[in-house]
Design a protein that fits this description.
Number of helices of chain B: 12
Strand content of chain A: under 5%
Oligomer: heterodimer
Number of strands of chain A: 0
Radius of gyration of chain B: 25 Å
Structural class of chain A: mainly alpha
Order of helices and strands of chain A: HHHHHHHHHH
Shape of chain B: flat
Distance between the termini of chain B: 74 Å
Distance between the termini of chain A: 34 Å
Largest interface: A-B, 49 and 43 residues
Largest sheet of chain B: none
Shape of chain A: globular
Structural class of chain B: mainly alpha
Order of helices and strands of chain B: HHHHHHHHHHHH
Radius of gyration of chain A: 19 Å
Number of strands of chain B: 0
Helix content of chain A: 55-70%
Number of helices of chain A: 10
Strand content of chain B: under 5%
Chain lengths: ~210, ~260
């Protein structure tokens, strides 16, 4: 993978073959295509699922909805091929995830925009590598407290900053694919990523968790 | 250039450099932040700070592609070999790919096996992974029988399935230790590479030392010495591999290595 490239990664040869088979109407191709991408979609949804929503919805249900939509829209996709299939599948799952999240928050009598979507555990997820090496059992309590402090610092970032950090750092997606998911240009993703890192640096320094080298 | 434009240019520069820095780390390199700071002196402080954050947060337990790749590389073969043996005469063999994928989804999910192992909550990763694999296997085995499929022929008791997993694990660890010893031999030079060949002839070809000595035209005594050194090198490589997979005190690592050898006997 070259994350610096401004084009999404192409599909694997196996996926391309299945797409070709689906395009000529081979009956088993669509099922195989969906099965092949299901684990990746489930892992992606699990990572981004808000904890409050996760208490009510299983990631596999969201993926099932997304896959049903993919199957329904596949003829149109095959005719247009606007992006690689793996990215289209992830984008479809991401949109279902956003819909699910909005729906659950609405039920909780809260409003949320796309920009405000935030998996709240992302703070902890982004913070945890600061404990790289892992605490010994005797240090566990101290480590938990440290992790909470880091998570609080991460939590001070605007939601859009956290989201781009999560997609790049935790999902390991290139800017072109993050842009496709978030509906912005890769250059804007690059800028947002840089800004998010500088803001996180400030937050970590303020919390006494990172040395100020200036 | 206005102040806002300058800020945007700085954000963009930091984003590009951080992305490149992260990509190099994902490829296993160890880039030096100072290299980037020197290249752009006008933004050196910001670059140092942003890359320091990236070092701290660059890669999330159980979720980054690099870690997923590492986990798959380390354990995919073991999981596949175990499930293949468990379902060796069952229709479930057709489900092997899906089952292996499910095991790894379990490992990668939040709070999953990999995260548990990284957080130190799991004293024995082998046992923990076995638990994940066993649960996935049982899920597949408990599904309704397909119209075309025969009843799964699941062998023996849980104890024998556990031994099967331990043996599969032990085999994989031994192969990894042998590979490690070979890589180390490349760095150590021709004599070390010769000792690798000596081990191969002794174990894979089953040749006695005296026969190898005759082939090589050397005194058997010197080959016995080389053989002893080769075995020590293998043991050292084995302990390093065991410590990587099952961290612990030196005594615990030695005990785990002994357990693995016993599982193979």
């Amino acid at each position: 993978m070259d994350p610096t490239a401004d084009a999404p990664r192409p599909d694997s040869s196996a996926t391309s073959q299945l797409l070709a088979a689906a395009a000529v109407g081979e009956p088993s191709a669509v099922g195989k295509l969906l099965a092949r991408h299901r684990p990746e979609m489930v892992a992606f949804v699990r990572l981004h699922l808000d904890r409050r929503t996760a208490a009510r919805v299983d990631p596999s249900d969201i993926v099932q909805d997304a896959q049903a939509e993919i199957a329904r829209r596949l003829p149109d996709y095959l005719a247009r091929r606007p992006m690689p299939f793996h990215l289209w599948a992830r984008k479809t799952a991401y949109e279902r995830l956003l819909d699910t999240h909005r729906r659950h928050l609405r039920r909780a009598r809260r409003t949320v925009t796309r920009e405000e979507f935030l998996p709240d555990r992302s703070s902890v997820l982004l913070a945890r590598p600061l404990l790289a090496g892992g605490p010994t059992p005797s240090q566990a309590a101290e480590a938990r407290e440290f992790e909470e402090r880091v998570a609080r610092a991460v939590g001070e970032l605007p939601p859009a900053d956290r989201e781009v950090l999560l997609l790049r750092n935790a999902d390991g997606l290139p800017f072109a694919e993050i842009g496709a998911l978030m509906g912005i240009e890769p250059a804007a993703v690059r800028k947002r990523f840089g800004r998010a890192l500088l803001r996180l640096r400030t937050a970590l320094i303020s919390a006494g968790l990172l040395e100020d080298t200036r | 250039m206005s102040s806002a434009d300058a800020d945007e240019a700085l954000d963009s520069l930091i984003g590009r450099l951080a992305d490149e820095f992260l990509a190099r780390r994902e490829r296993g390199e160890d880039p030096d932040p100072e290299e980037y700071a020197t290249r752009y002196p006008h933004a050196a402080d910001e670059i140092r700070g942003a890359l320091a954050v990236l070092v701290a947060t660059g890669g999330s337990p159980g979720s980054s592609p690099a870690e997923q790749d590492a986990l798959a590389r380390d354990y995919l073969g073991i999981v596949r070999a175990y499930l293949s043996a468990r379902w060796r005469s069952s229709e479930l063999r057709a489900e092997l790919d899906d089952a292996v994928q499910e095991v790894f989804v379990e490992c990668f999910r939040q709070g999953g096996a990999l995260e548990a192992a990284r957080s130190g909550r799991v004293p024995n990763f082998r046992a923990f992974l076995y638990g994940v694999v066993r649960n996935v296997a049982r899920r597949f085995e408990s599904r309704p029988v397909r119209a075309t499929g025969a009843l799964p022929d699941i062998p023996a008791t849980e104890a024998s399935l556990s031994r099967l997993f331990e043996r599969t694990w032990a085999q994989a660890i031994m192969i990894e230790a042998a590979d490690r010893q070979k890589r180390q031999a490349v760095e150590r030079g021709p004599e070390a590479l010769r000792r690798i060949e000596l081990l191969r002839l002794r174990f894979e070809e089953g040749l006695p030392i005296r026969t190898i000595a005759q082939h090589w035209g050397e005194p058997a005594a010197s080959l016995h010495h080389a053989y002893a050194v080769a075995r020590r090198e293998f043991k050292a490589a084995l302990l390093e591999v065991v410590a990587y997979h099952s961290p612990g005190s030196p005594a615990e690592v030695e005990q785990e290595a002994a357990n693995l050898l016993k599982a193979l006997s």
